[in-house]
Fold:
Amino acid sequence: MKGIIFTEFIDMVEEHFGYEMVDYLIESSELPSGGSYTSVGTYNYSEIMQLVRQLHLKTEIPLDDLLRTFGIHLHKTFTTGYHHFFEAYDSSREFLESIDNHIHVEVRKLYPDAELPRFVTSRPNEDTLEMLYTSERKMGQLALGLIEKSVEFYNEKAEVTMENLSNDGTQVRFVIKYIQ
Ligand code: HEM
Structure:
């Protein structure tokens, strides 16, 4: 997993819980990398889950909530660092539909070893966007935070629901129902 995900996670923990918490998480986890992340590095995906789990154990905040908050934080990072992707679209529907065949395609060009999810989208009716998420990394809650913030970014309103299609979290359906 790319270093930017790790440096942004550390950033979020520092912002919400303070630097002592960052220290605690790194000390109390068994991290092959030792925990000194750089945005250009690549680290094992299991390290981020270990850090999230340690934060959950320490704060007693549900894992799902922590991942979703991380998605919200990451969205802010993307709107500054990758603003051209947002400017290329006029609505969250078009933006979200473009992740698989544009945005993450460009991300892979930048980072050939990126571990990206798959999204298959459809519009069951004119108010609704459906997104099917598939990933071995089981980060559906991260996607939820990113989706909710994407709707907000384009000044739209929608009810976003998430449904697990598999017991292990590798397949998730999002239904984004736009409110006029
Ligand atoms: C400008 C917009 C975006 C950029 C630049 C971007 C970039 C990235 C990058 C760099 C990674 C990490 C890959 C790795 O570490 O190997 C990633 C992962 C991920 N992205 Fe995006 N992304 C964007 C938008 C979105 C949106 C809107 C969603 C949600 C619908 C999304 C869902 C995910 C998820 C869930 C992962 C975690 C990996 C996984 O689940 O397999 N991304 N993205």
